[in-house]
Amino acid sequence: MKKKIIGIMVALALIGILAFQVAPALADAAGPLDHVVITPASATLLPADVQQFTAQGYDATNIAITGLTYTWGIVAGGGTISPTGLFTTGDTAGVYANTVQVSTTQSTITKTALASVTVTTEPQTEPAVKPNIKKLTGLFTSYLNNVGFENFNGGQWTVKENGAVNTYKAIPGVVKAVSATALTILANGQTVSTAFALPAGTTILPKDATLSVDDRVVVVTVNDQVKLVLKITAPSTTTGNMPPGLKKNGKERDDNKGTPPGWEKGKKNGWNKDDNTDTEDD
User: Fold this and answer.
1) In terms of pTM, does the model score above 0.70?
2) At CA 104, angle to CA 115 and CA 46, rounded to 5?
3) Fewer Cβ neighbours under 10 Å: the N or C end of the chain?
4) Considering only CA atoms, which of 213, 204, 206, 207 is closest in space to residue 178?
C-alpha cells in the first residue's frame, strides 16, 4: 500500500513539473491574428524614388505571429509596389494617403494595414552622418582578408558622432537583383533575400565598379540607410608589384632579386631595365 501511495505521489510530482515547464511556453504562444503593423507608416520621397515597406502580424496581446504570408498593393496611386513591399514612386508629386496596403490571412481571419506616401519635388535634407569611406573600406578589407568573405556574417556598431548616436551595419552577401535605385542580396548565412533602397550618389567601391547578379558585396548602412557598397573582387591573378606596363607573359620572377628577369628596382624612379639584359654568357 505504501509503495502505491509513493508511486502516486511521484506521478503527481512529475505532472506538476511538466505543467510548470509547459505553462510558460503556452503563455508565449501567439493567439489568433488580431492586427497587422506596416513599417514605416508614412514616407516622403522624391519622384522615381524607392522605399522598402515591411509588415508583421500580431495577436490581441501583441505577440508576433510567424509563418504569415503578406500581399502588397496600391489603392490610392503614387507609385507601384513589388511582391516583397519595395515601393517605387511615380512622377507626379502629391500626398497619397493610405495608398500602400498589405494584407495577410490566418485560417479564416484576414487583416490589412495601410501606409501613406508623400511624393515631393523638394530634395530631402541629407542626413548629417557621412561615414568615413576610407576608414570603413580599410577596416572591412583588412577584416575580410583575415577571415574570408564566406566566414563574415556582418556586424553592427553604435558610434557617437557630433553628439549623436548612430548605428552602423555591415551586411555581406551575394547580389540577387540590382537596379539604379535598388539592390537585393542574399546575406551570408541567410535563406531569405534582403532588399535595400539605393539613394542617388551611393558610393560603390572599387571606384566606378558596376554591380551584377552573383557579385559578392558588403552593404554598409548608417541608421538603416545605405551609404556604401563594397564589391568584393576575386584575388588578383597578376603577379602583384610588377613594373607598370609589364606583363608576366608566363615568365617567372628572378629567384634572387624577386623581380622579372632582366629588371631591377630603381631607388626612386620605380622600375628600370637592366642595361645588360641583352648580353648572355656563352
Assistant:
1) no
2) 25
3) C
4) 213
